Each structure stands twice: as C-alpha cells, then as structure tokens.
Amino acid sequence: MILKVIIDDQTYEINVPAVVLAEARDYFDQIDRDLDVGWQMGRDWVEAPDRIQRAQIVADRLLTALETDNRKLGTLLAGYLLDRLPGLESVEPDLQGEPQNTRFEMGRPPQAAPKTSSVTSKPSGKGLSKLEAMEQAGREVTQVFRVGRGYRFSVFDHETGTWMDAPLAPTEQEAERLRQASFRARYEALLVGR
Fold first, then answer.
1. DSSP 3-state assignment of 96?
2. Do 11 and 97 belong together in one domain?
3. Where do the segments described as Disordered lie (predicted)?
4. Number of folded domains that form the chain
5. 96 and 57: one domain?
6. Which of 64, 85, 106 represents a domain boundary (last residue)?
7. Averaging pLDDT over each range in 39-43, 80-84, 168-172, which range is the top one?
8. Could you tell me where the DSSP H helices lie in the chain?
9. Which of 91, 106, 121 is the last residue of a domain?
10. What pLDDT does 137 receive?
C-alpha cells in the first residue's frame, strides 16, 4: 500500500508492503499501549487520545522519521496509519509542532469503488457469486484493530461513502465476533444484490 505524505508543497510516497502490515501488528499494538497513558499534543495534554488523535501523534513521529531519513521507522509508522485508518490516502503533518492540526485525506475503500457501483446498481436477485461476494465483503469490513483499551473494526457505508466505526468492544475476541457477524451480513446481502 502507498501512503502519500505532504510536506510543504512536496509529496512523498511511502510504500508499505502487505507483509509489513501483517508482521508489524505487535508493534502497532505497542504504539497504542504507549498512547493509552495519554500524550502531549502541542500545548495540551490528552488523557485518552481517540483514534484520530493517535493517528495525528503518529503522523508527527512520521514527520520526524522522514526528516532524519529513518526509512525503516517511517515505513512502520506509515503502516500504523494505513492499518488504523482504513481508506487513508494521504497525510499532511503539521510543521509547527501542533499534531492536532495534522490533516488526513480519506479515499474510497481499497479496490472497492468499481465493484461497489456495479453492486449497488444491480436489481434485487442479481447478486455476486460466492467468491466475488466474499472478496467484496472482505474489502468493506476491516480487520479488528485496537483503540485505547478496547477493540473495534470499521465498515464501509455505501449511502454516505465513508467508513463507520463499530462500537468499541472490551476484548479482541468480542470485537472479532461482532466483525464476523457484520462480515456475514454484508456477504449475504451481496449474494442477493443489495
């Protein structure tokens, strides 16, 4: 996956291989554990950073990694952002040391745009094949990710064209159970063309 980082008027592209996303989950979880105790964001202390604040903090660290030419750390931090913000296309870190001013640009779900339009335009009863429905549902329901002391996943909402966060679950197993239910519901809807 590619993350675009906009610094001043220049755009840098960081390629994060899928293997890095898969193998760095423990590192991503460690970042979240570090942030669970709170973080200084500019002049303000944030007791319990939410998902966007965490991403802003990590984007600030990513900026430092790029400035010091630490490519390995930069790739890992870009991977965290891509993992925790499904659909993220670009980040514009604040250059004045105020992470809360960092901006993110979200795109459509990865690879979902072309199929989504064809699925929603199909009349009822003309759904996808089982394999197509499973692949599409996999793109529209993210994996479970950690947020603070809880876990959740995101689902792409076709009506608004945005990602919606599932309720926060206290355990990873509970979040995974809820995710499987959402995945199954989306899969079954795609089979019948909804």
1. coil
2. yes
3. 91-127
4. 2
5. yes
6. 106
7. 80-84
8. 18-23, 25-36, 51-67, 71-84, 113-121, 130-140, 172-191
9. 106
10. 86
pLDDT averaged over the chain?
82
Domain that holds residue 142: 113-191
Is residue 158 scored above 80 in pLDDT? no
Contact present, 123 and 193 (Cβ < 8 Å)? yes
Distances (CA, A) of 46 to 55, 92, 99: 13, 21, 11
- Please indicate, yes or no, whether residues 55 and 144 belong to a single structural domain of this protein: no
pTM for this model (two decimals): 0.57
Q: For residue 142, what are its two tokens?
A: 């993210």
49 in the same domain as 135: no
- 57-64, Cβ contacts within 8 angstroms, sequence gap of 24 or more: 57/99, 58/31, 58/84, 59/91, 59/93, 59/99, 59/102, 59/104, 60/93, 60/94, 60/97, 60/99, 60/102, 62/5, 62/91, 62/93, 63/5, 63/7, 63/93, 63/95
φ, ψ (nearest 5 deg) of residue 61: -70, -35
